Structures are given as structure tokens and as C-alpha cells.
Amino acid sequence: MQLADVKPTSVTMVSVLPACAQLATLQQEIARRVFDRMPQRNAISWTAMIAGYAQNGCSNDALVVFHQMQLANMTPDSGSIVSVLRACSLLGALWKGKCIHAYVIRSGMAEDVNVGNSLVSMYAKCVSIDVALQFFDNMPKRDVVSWNAIIAGYSQNGQAYEALRLFQQMQRDKMKPDLTTMVSVLPACAHLAALQQGKLIHGHILRNGLEMDVSTGNALIDMYAKCGRLEIARSLFEKMPKRDVVSWNVMILGYGLHGRSKDAISLFSQLEQTGMKPDDITFICILSACSHAGLVDEGRKYFNSLNRDHCITPRMEHYICVVDLLGRAGYLDEAQELINNMPFEPDASVWGALLGACRIHCNIELAEYVAKHHLKLESNNTGCYVLLSNIYAAAGRWQDAAKVRTMIKTKGLKKNPGRSWIEIKNSVHTFVGGDKSHPQSEKIYAVLDSLIRDMKKEGYVHDKTFVLQDVEEEEKENIISTHSEKLAIAFGLLETSPGMPIQITKNLRVCGDCHNASKFISKIAKREIVLRDINRFHHFKDGVCSCGDYW
Predict the structure, then answer these.
(1) According to a count of CB atoms within 10 Å of the terminal CB, is the N or C end of the chain lower?
(2) Share of the chain above pLDDT 70, in %
């Protein structure tokens, strides 16, 4: 048109601008030049420019154009608001999002369902999930997108129970879920290891003929892998008509979580053979897999190949994985040297990985040094204080442990109690150490007492070093006998048929005594016990654990 010397009008610009806005980042400058040359701009052209920036991840530019739109006395429409709220969500710009919310109220757009959905999503992604729920509850009209936004919000903020509760409420309210709903709620099932709930969702997808896109397939693979059904996950992976790099990542991660690091390495090699390029997340997954199995040489090789062979600049998460790999394997000096030579300042998570290794290898001197650096960055990190206290307690330095615990109380911090849970007949049963609140507590303790007697006959001895309290020996035995893992296993034996596998989940790292006890129970009860702790899966069968006692 321009080569024919025909001058574009504002109508032409409005028609071509959305097409430019949807192009890759490389074309953003062209879109902006088209926009700047427009003789007249209306709400549609402004919205197209804002949306183009927001859709291509240029969130700051989207906010700047929105501000310019207001300075030009152009009244934003609902499309502009939706796009700029998306930009706020990506940036985590809560204050700006609140300002836009105030404008929405003043302008009377609060009842627009699309604007409302964007506000729910913005608050959720800016970690104001309570505000998101409050707004959601007060929406005069809700559609499936509204439900998806709030369910995804809770799932992404680590509140899996609430995400599942909302999903169930959605169904009670006769709102038909779509594929986006499934992709939002499946991570909650994965987090809780709620296999039966995950299977119900998978069945819903199949029964309702919902098209199985790549994202849904990836979410199902992730769910089954994290719910202990690795073979189902691999079967789904193999049957996918189309895979993206995320498909490979979740499968590699799944193998790593289950300690099948050689399978993870084999799959990584298959990925490279397909011609698809691994991304930075792929390397986090494979480095994590190496860490779980103590494959130090392989881990070093993958880390060194990041920049050299794949032009990927290592970021903090890669260093965390390698520090964890080296630390678990006992290479504490090398791990510390790696931290000291990082091209950027280490964050608290890097120091936390090394502190965890100090706990495994009982290195108090290094632990004190590491904790000092960790607390400089996060002075109110309860986990750091608890870990340091546990390191002192394990070494019998009770006064030092007590001082650290006093610091926790003085700062008003709260320790996250150990919890284990098991899913029975679509219901999740949760236990804490010494728990007697369950309706079947009397029967659970009877099963546990019987198990401990049988275990002792087979040579089991309580490892009281994992009781991190300065109490009498008899009390130590009582405490360690009723750890949450043991209670959950006893309940599983009580409520499932003979020979059925038992699967439990622990929110913290499984202690050494519970790990040893689970091996004995698997042999005595002739059951496979699958235990997922915060780091990985343990498959106990015939008195042996799949981790090879390396975790």
C-alpha cells in the first residue's frame, strides 16, 4: 500500500496494528512505529498497543502506554483494563493493580465479567490470594474463566487443599469445567499426591471428550509422576501425538523424583536426538535427578555443558542444584567454593542447600558459617533456625540448640510441624507426631504397637539421634515411635486390603528412623510402601528402599 503511494488512514492503522502487536518481540518496534505515525488514535488503537506489549511479555511498556493513554485524555475501555491488568500480573505490580482496580470501581466497570476475571487473576498472581477470593465471592456474575482464575491462583500459591475445595464447589454450582480448569487443578492433585482426585479429573476429560492438548497432557504426566504412578506417566508421555520441551521436562523430573536417575539421563539423551533443544528448566530437572542419586560426575558434566554447548547462562536455580548435588555427596568444600565463585550474589536458597548438606554430614563449623550468611539475607527464615537447631541437637549440643529455639520464639516465628497424609477412598487423612485426634486413633496405635513389637524381633532398634529434644531416653522412644509417617502407615494398613500398596506423603524430609522403620514394615506386612517426602520418592519393598539409603 505504501509502495503504491497510498496514504494509510486511521482505519488502516487500527486494522494493521493488532496484527503487528501479535508478532514476536522483534516486531514490537515496527508496531510502535505504526502506532506513533497514526494521525488519530482511538480506544481500539491504544488497547491494541497495550495488548501487544502485554502478550509479548513487555509488561513495563504496556504500563507506560496505558499511562500515556490517560494523559491523552483517552478513556480506557474494558479491553485496555484487561490488558494492563495482565501486565500487572506478570510484573507482580500489586500497587499499580490496586490503582487500576480503584479506576474500575470509579468508572463502573466492576460488573464486567472479563474485567472481574482479570482482577481475580492479578490479585492471585501478586500473592494477594485472600483479596482475590474476596473479590471472586462478590462478583455478581461468574463464568468458567472466573473459576479457573481463582483455582489457578490457589494452586500456584501452594494452597492445594483450597484449590481442590473450589474445584468441588465449582461442580456443585453446576459450572462445567473446561481444559483450562483441568490444567489448573491437576497441579493441586500433584502437590497433595491426591491420586484418586487426579484420576477422577482424568476420567472427566475422557468422558466429556475434551481435546487433550499438550498442556493438559503435560499436567497429567506431572500429576501421575508426583502421585507415585511413574509408569502411567511414561505411558501418557509415549502416547502424546505432540510434545513440547515441557513434556520432556516433567518426565525427566518425574524420573529424578523417584530416584531413577539413569532413566532421566536416557530420556535427556533422547530429547537431544529429536533435535528439540533443552531449555534452562530441562537442566534443572536433570541436575536434580543427578543429585538424588549422587551422580556427581554426570552432574558436573551437565552443568559445564550449559553455557558451552547450549548457550544457556546458568542461573540461581542451576547453582542451587549443583550445591545440593555436591553437598549431599559430601563434597562440602567444593560446594562452598562454587558458591564463592558464583558470577552473582548467592541467595538464601543456595546457602540453604549447603546448610542441609551440613545437617547430613554433621559439619557444625561450616553450618554456623553458612547459617550466618543465610540469615543475613533472610533474618526471619524459620527453616534456617530450625535446621541449625537440629544440627546442634544431633551433636548433643543442647544448650546451643536451646539458644536457637529461644531466638525463634523471641522473633515470633513459627516452626512448620511435620505432617504426613494418606488418601483413602477420595478422602485425605492428615497426621502429626503423637497425633491422637483421628477418630480411629485407638486402632491406629494398636496396629503401630504390634508392628513395633514385630520389628524389634527382626532386629529393629529405634535411632534416638533423630529425637531432637533433650528428654529422657524412654521419652525419646515414645516420641520417635509416633512420628507422623508411622501413624499414616499404620492407618494405611488398617484401611486397605492385604497386599495393596500404601502411599503416604510427608511435608518435610523423612527422618532416618522412619526410613528404617518403613523398610522393616514393608517386609513384615508384605506391602509396598511409597513415601513421598519434600525432596523425593522412597519405594519400600521387601525390606529395601529404592533410594539405596541415599537421600
Answers:
(1) N
(2) 95
